[in-house]
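Trying the structure run again after the queue cleared.
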Amino acid sequence: MAAPQIAFALAGKNVVDAGTDADPPKEVAEVVYSGNVAEQKDVTIELFEVDLGEGTGKPRQPLKLATFKADIVPVPSPKQGSPPGALKLTQKPSPPIDKALPRFKLEIGGETFDIGLTGLDAEGGRRFEIQIKAAAKGKRGQLKFESKAFLFARFGHFAKEPRAPVIAFITGGEDDAFFKTGTVFWQQHADVVIEQDGMSLEEIVAFLAKHSARIKKETGDKGWGEVNIVAHGNPISAKIKILKSSPEPNLRIVQLDVALKQKPSAFKVTDLGLRDTSRVVFRSCNIGRRADLLKRVKKDVFADKCEVKAPKFLQQYATAAGSASTRKATEGFVEDVTIHLPQATEPSDAQKLAAIKARFEELEKKRPTAQRQTFEKEKNTFTIKKAKLVENSVPFPGGGLKEHEAALHMKENKQRTTPEARLAAAIDADNQTDNFDFTVKEQWKRGSVTILTEQAAKELEVQASSADALPPRAIAPVGGTVVIGNNSTLKSSIEGSSNRFVNAIHSPASGLSSDQFIDIKVVDAKKVKVTTTGGATFVFNGSTETERSATLTGKGQLKLGVGGETLTVRRSQLVTAELPIKRFSVSFRRKLRKSDPKLDFAKRPAIVPDIDDPGHYGSSNDPDPSPSELAELGK
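Done. Tokens:
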């Protein structure tokens, strides 16, 4: 015969909504008796709100919400599998209900009650965990019950959010208004809120991994519904550290590659409490336009488990007056028109307006004709106007040839080679990659290149001076040879090469015939040997020669005359240099509203962020941005 037990179970869902007088709860949680005792007097049933330590602090003690007294009375002819008894309430709770605080509805013993919840200041999020305890003095001794499963009462959640738990990570400090108001918002909309200034993706993933077993147990293996990451952002990157040890908050594809190479184990944990029904949402300005980045974050950070989303607009949080328990917090989008002027001094108001107008009209041309607005009518509706000087520098770090081609030539022959000309191709090429930091080159006022360090490398560099030389510069490693000729086959092979650095120079000015060549071989780290074939000659120190050996050290060089061509032979100089750049950025911003030129701005409906609207949020499921779309982001 089984030992006598008093037990209780939840009928239906274990998640219900909570509300206040202003927005009363609509759902009802039902608690039913499920024990095997048919008759028992004076059963005490208590409800507690428990804090399992959702945040980074210690769990607090359970807080009693309500107490019921009941008798268990026999049920005539109970159905098979049903308990032999039922509850008859003998004492009901009558605590005062604070109209400003949330409460939920509970049905027990055939009656429905409002159960008041705690103040929101004491709750890590707005998911209240409700535990049931019961006790009675039975014929064979004390009878006790304590629920292992929890009833979750959720307050103030999105209409479209998952029925599974929602967690929000706040990665910035309270000294930043974005994070301060964002924290209030998520305390009203998430089940769990974790705040840590400077929190990295590595730490977020570690937290999810640590609590994965618990969240799966609580949700019947459904896992997290939504993981939110509140961080600053822009169209190029999310401003969050990838690793805990990362020197700066800069989530970009190229930086993700660096981090994964630096610490391959950082994101190896695959059980994060995520399912294919879950979603990770970055609450970061504009980064939703980078589907290519969201794909990599999904794959390399979140174990390819679920969709990753982010907004396509500037993100904004706002709060109304009142206490943390009562003030309403909102999330919204901001319309932004920004221009960048290549100058080091603040533009005049006339310059700002002219540039903003041009950009505004450029953006309006992308709308349907009926929705297009005029700048003259709209300009005064932009209530936030900012102008700031942005200073940066394009570095040329030492250590390899590809990055330093521009710097190698900037110091020498300044009359022929300008920094702008040498950098233009590289900047334009970077505009189509995740390496691009500085937007299009026309936006920046460029200063003079500063050579920080210069060091001779082992590679040999041969520079031709004639305008027709192709290419004007050739590179050869130790043991390699640079060939100089005037052969059509040689020219074709150079033109058809995909290698940026070839080991040959075609020079019509050299006067060499098709079967004559100059070979400059790198014998070892210092020594070079110049030889000729086909009867070719070169001039060295005024004498005509066909062979010459030379030792090159440091910045020393060897000059050879070949017909009308002058060849400068030297060690490649690895240069660390920087190019200072400045611009004035001017932004006009206003609340994002539906475009309707027939209505005054204040009467147009505000855009409410909708996680399911592809016009609002980008997704890891979207196609990668095209080169032209990436170029547009640079504006």
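The longest strand covers residues 565-591. Worth checking whether this holds up in the mutant runs.
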